[in-house]
Design goal:
- Its main location: cytoplasm.
- It is a single chain.
- The strands form 3 sheets. The protein has a 6-stranded antiparallel sheet with strand order 8-9-1-4-7-10, with no helix packed on it.
- The protein contains no helices and 10 strands.
- By secondary structure, it is mostly beta strands.
- It has one domain: Roll (10 Kd Chaperonin, Protein Cpn10, Chain O).
Length: about 90
């Protein structure tokens, strides 16, 4: 992957949720909620405040939770990614 985020943005690879089946009822993709957990695959240099670059507090490989409707969805090489601002990352897991 060769996506390089700018400023305080990160690229997240959303974790795939397993197919859900309740009893004998299959839940189609259109009825599933969007994933809110993923792994950071690229990080921008950080935001600029008063002429100084503020470094990012997340790094590549971190598993994170992000807002349900945050960011911009893109598809690269057949894989889905999400580009969000660092402020849209809610928490780092483990």
């Amino acid at each position: 992957m060769n996506i390089k985020p700018l400023a305080d943005r990160v690229v997240i690879s959303p974790l795939d949720s397993a197919e859900e089946k309740v009893g004998s009822i299959y839940i189609p993709d259109s009825a599933k909620e969007k994933p809110q957990e993923g792994e950071i695959v690229a990080v921008g240099p950080g935001r600029t405040e008063d002429g100084k670059v503020v470094p990012m507090s997340v790094k590549v490989g971190d598993r994170v939770l992000y807002g349900k409707y945050a960011g911009t969805e893109i598809k690269k090489d057949g894989k889905d990614y999400l580009i969000v601002r660092e402020s849209d990352v809610l928490a780092v897991i483990g």
